[in-house]
Amino acid sequence: MSAPFSEPPRPADNRTLTAARTSELDAGYSPGADAWRRLRKNKLAVFGGVTLLVLALLCVVGPLFLSTSYQDQDLELGAVGPCAEHWLGTDTLGRDLFARMLYGGRISLGVGLSATLVALTIGVLYGAIAGYVGGKTDAVMMRFVDILYALPFTIFVILLMVIFGRNIILLFVAIGAVEWLTMARIVRGQVMALKKLEFIEAARALGYGNRRIIFRHMLPNIVGPIIVYTTLTIPAVMLLEAFLSFLGLGVQPPMSSWGTLIKDGAEKMEEYWWLLVFPCSVFSLTLFSLNFLGDGLRDAFDVRSAKD
Amino acid sequence: MLRFALRRFLQTIPVMLCIITVTFFMVRFAPGGPFTTEKALSPEVLRNLEAHYGLDRPLWEQYVNYLGKLVRGDLGPSLKYTNRTVTEIIAEKLPVSLELGAWALLVALLLGLPLGIVAAVKRNTWLDYLCSSVGMVGICVPTFVLGPLLALLLGIHLQWFNVSGWYEPGDRVLPAVTLGFVYAAYLMRLTRGGMLEILHQDFIRTARAKGASETRVIFKHALRGGLLPVVSFLGPAIAGILTGSFVIETIFQIPGLGREFVNSAFNRDYTLVLGTVILYAALIVLLNLVADIAQVWLNPKLKFE
């Protein structure tokens, strides 16, 4: 329990000598290029990456080319199914579902990215400090993480959102506060392994300060695992946001995220199936893509999974 | 072993205390109160109400009082439902949530274990790919997506089940499947992984060499070791099923504790919120504890770490 991550020290250039990779070593690829080559061979990961790029591009740029905005109402039109003019149909207020989904995607992806960034920053700093300082400080810091792990966080996030109103900043904080724990554990494990290596000792012998050693010498060497777990954190974050929005505790109207669209769709599914089916599909597709990409990256960087 | 269990048990006490304290003060610092209604009460009535429930005392004194009562098993009166105690409300609503959870767990086990075993035994065949895809779908399609979609297809379109409510036995099907499916997917992945690891080992080859039938090899020899990771996952899974029921109860309008909890938080029913959180937290912490101990018990290698 006390050592959740006890991997053998993994050198930065990842030259674990499997037979398949010796030829790549001869050619002299950098670790980044090496991972990139392996990632491209993974069809599912490439599919995930391309889908994500297309979706993100559509959500960011798409609304600029649309004639309707997400809040344009057409009450006389009401809800119509998919047709030539409204590709994915309209909702009961006559708002174009396609436009609403693009705008919703902006919010969902935006929340996903920024809350992940919060989690990433806290997790990396916390883990790096705990692992680098070690000793009693480390023990206390990681015990704290263990305690947080045991808390029923879903309950607390719901409580937080219900009680302190539903503003979007709080949403970031609440989600970020939940998702940094695993990152902290992983970074700590990696830093502890690196700490014993010669080049860190060399850096210390050269008289470099702690901050410089952590940021310039250690973190660049654990970029792989950090990227992998960031990619896997994004779907978790998006899921939590959609979960809260579905309960009516997340993003508030007139803004809409995919979670609120699914909520609206679920309420009206008896008459208007498209309001439920399309947001559900695009949301699941995004989660699929992110998970495929994350798994692919994990294999490419050859990071062992840290199952807690 | 006993010492490990005891030490692990003692560790849960600060966790529980921490949860109670955070929840207590979080609810209190929230804007609004249990007696804030659309029609404002006169100050005198309000003062009397607060005095009746002890809400006029200093906060720390209320906190100490609450802890004192809690140790004796008293969760206090509900502030919104007059003349009812929190314990009564929980006793009424919890069985519904527990029943839902039990059905969901059954679905998860009945679906996850066989699929995982099949996938591992028939590795790299179309059966394996089929099972693994089902697993991926379960992990990427969250309950609040699956639930409405199932209700749309099986409830509204095919008219097999009611879309909401909790009356007939048939009403259990959709919520249980929705809630259980995600965990079926996780169980399937874990079972597959665990079985694959075991099927490689020497004692399996020995069993085959002895001439044991394939069925016997799988069920008698491989399954025990292969299910180890599944056992340790069951604790968190049950905890997840319990908290996951919030959404399910909202989707299918089931009168369980999950919905009651969200309502009580909206209503600022301080004691009911606290009571529910403490109950859920205790269940979760306890399940994790059992899972940890079971893991060490089943895998003696861990004892020395």
Mean model confidence by pLDDT of chain B: 81
The proportion of strand residues of chain A reads: under 5%
Instruction: Name the poorly predicted regions of chain A.
Output: 1-24
From the spread of the alpha carbons, the general shape of chain A counts as: elongated
Anisotropy-based shape of chain B: flat
What does this structure look like?
The complex is a heterodimer of chains A (308) and B (305). Chain A has 308 residues and is an all-alpha fold. Helices cover 69% and strands 0% of the residues of chain A. Chain A contains 12 helices and no strands. Chain A is elongated. Chain B is mainly alpha-helical and 305 residues long. Chain B contains 12 helices and no strands. Chain B has helices at 2-29, 43-53, 59-71, 86-121, 126-140, 143-157, 173-199, 202-209, 214-226, 228-251, 257-267, 270-298. In chain B, helix 4 (86-121) packs across helix 7. The longest helix of chain B is centred in the middle third of the chain and has 36 residues, at 86-121. Chain B is flat and about 85 Å long. The A-B interface holds A 1, 3, 147, 150-152, 154-156, 158-160, 162-165, 235, 239, 242-243, 246-247, 259, 262-263, 265-266, 269-270, 273, 276-277, 280, 283-284, 287-288, 291 and B 12, 14-15, 18-19, 22-23, 26-27, 30-31, 136, 139-142, 144-145, 147-149, 151-152, 156, 163, 239, 243-244, 246-247, 250-251, 261-262, 265-266, 268, 273, 277, 280-281, 284-285, 288, 292, 305.
Features:
heterodimer, A: 308 residues, mainly alpha, B: 305 residues
Short description:
The complex is a heterodimer of chains A (308) and B (305). Chain A is mainly alpha-helical and 308 residues long.
